[in-house]
Design goal:
Layout (H helix, E strand, L loop, with lengths): L2 H19 L19 E2 L4 H7 L3 E2 L3 E6 L5 H14 L3 E6 L7 H7 L6 E4 L5 H12 L10 E7 L7 H10 L6 H17 L8 E10 L8 E3 L4 H4 L3 E6 L5 E3 L5 E13 L9 E7 L3 E3 L1 H10 L3 E5 L2 E8 L2 E4 L3 E2 L1 H10 L1 H17 L5 E4 L2 E4 L2 E3 L1 H7 L1 H8 L19
Parallel strand pairs: 3-7, 3-9, 4-5, 4-6, 6-7
Antiparallel strand pairs: 1-2, 7-8, 9-11, 10-11, 11-12, 12-13, 14-15, 15-16, 15-17, 18-19, 19-20
Helix pairs in contact: 3-4, 11-13
């Protein structure tokens, strides 16, 4: 059989497939790799997180946001939902925790509620997923493309039908954790086999962390079993540091800092294990630029000749760029917002500097870099040690409190 006959055989298989499923979209079941379309990347609405992911969340991907209480999981997911709506798609929001919409998070993210299909948690998880299946399939049982995202908030609160029946018959003694893990594994298999992802639908999972009892020290693990670690191509841990409160002039708490760590990224748009931060200002939303500027100032990437003057230095390829003097913090922020190359270059440098800090040879004092105790230009150090940055970034994951069962990164 030559290549021409082989292609003809593929064509027959696709014809049989189209007749058997009565599909109307014309998408063949069997294709060559060169015929596959490039996935469009949807921004998260958060420049700090977009940088860590290499641009955002690709269409047709399952991703997970997990972390402790108050880490900003629902708010962060809401910003992604808003970006999906801007692309002209609707969002299905399966709220397993309660029967009220997260109105504050949606308002901060700018969500159009008329473009959100809300499913509440009055019955089992299987029942909710069956409703989603009914919404996403047309009369020929083929997936539709009007829905751009499905959100389950949260995995931890989703209740299996078997567990509810067991509780009804035996009381609370009938509950078992394993039933939830089996249900989530089944839900994710259905998601992969129902054609939703092939239509570009993004599935976002909000998850919580639990202390794993019986081990010392107690590590944090995520709910829903081990399948949650394998099916998502992206896993993002959010963490609200204890000392990350933001105060106003009257010392009132008006927000907090959110640290993120990308424990898994198999999309190829950016390497895994990137980390960063942003600020959440209560009743206003995300302030993603502030933490980047503060860290860049502390490392000397943004020089501060005087208290109210700034000068930004960044890399574009192998060339060092320097801004004109900027007067005041507001002008600095405006410059970074209007110059995406400067912002992206600064964020890339911050990642490299964090990597070099693992060598314990590099220190900073008031924005001045010291290598082995000698004052140096941080940009020259980063350029000279580019290979070392790459090598260190592939070592075992630093201790960020990742929710895994062992000490190894989970980037399968």
């Amino acid at each position: 059989m030559d290549i021409k006959d082989f292609k003809a055989k593929i064509g027959k298989i696709n014809q049989q497939w189209a007749r058997s499923v009565k599909t109307t979209d014309g998408t063949p079941r069997v294709r060559f790799g060169s015929e596959l379309p490039e996935a469009r990347v949807i921004s998260t609405g958060n420049p700090a997180l977009d940088w860590g992911l290499g641009g955002g969340i690709p269409e047709g991907v399952i991703f997970e946001l997990y972390g402790g209480a108050g880490a900003g999981k629902t708010v962060t997911m809401s910003y992604v939902m808003a970006q999906v709506q801007k692309a002209g798609k609707m969002v299905i929001y399966y709220h397993t925790e309660e029967s009220w919409k997260p109105a504050n998070a949606w308002k901060l993210a700018g969500i159009d509620e008329n473009m959100v299909v809300y499913i509440d948690a009055r019955r089992s998880g299987e029942d909710g997923v069956n409703i989603i299946r009914s919404l996403l399939l047309d009369e020929n049982r083929s997936p539709i493309d009007i829905v751009g995202m499905i959100v389950i908030d949260s995995v931890s609160a989703i209740a299996p039908e078997a567990e509810l029946n067991s509780v009804g018959n035996n009381g609370m003694e009938g509950m078992t954790v394993g039933r939830q893990a089996a249900m989530m594994s089944k839900i994710l298999r259905i998601a992969c086999g129902s054609g939703w992802l092939q239509k570009g639908c993004i599935i976002g999972l909000v998850n919580q962390e639990r202390a794993q009892v019986g081990t010392t020290p107690l590590p944090n693990i995520t709910s829903g079993g081990n399948s949650i670690k394998f099916y998502p191509k992206i896993r993002i841990q959010l963490k609200a540091p204890r000392d990350g409160y933001i105060l106003d002039e009257q010392k009132n708490v008006i927000g907090h800092t959110v640290d993120y760590y990308i424990s898994k990224n198999n999309t190829g748009y950016a390497p895994p294990f990137r980390r960063g931060s942003w600020k959440v200002i209560y009743n206003k939303g995300l302030d993603v630029l502030g933490p980047v500027l503060d860290e860049a100032i502390s490392y000397g990437l943004i020089q501060q000749p005087s208290r109210a003057r700034y000068r930004v230095r960044w890399l574009e390829g192998s060339e060092i760029k320097t801004s004109d003097p900027l007067h005041g913090r507001a002008q600095l922020e405006t410059f970074m917002e209007n110059n995406p190359n400067a912002l992206e270059g600064t964020q890339s440098l911050l990642s490299r500097i964090r990597t070099l800090l693992q060598t314990e040879k590099l220190t900073f004092s008031e924005g001045v870099a010291f290598l082995d105790g000698v004052e140096t230009d941080i940009l020259n150090v980063v350029m000279e040690r580019a290979d070392e940055c790459a090598e260190l970034s592939t070592e075992a994951e630093p201790s960020f409190g990742d929710a895994t069962d062992d000490s190894l990164p989970d980037n399968e």
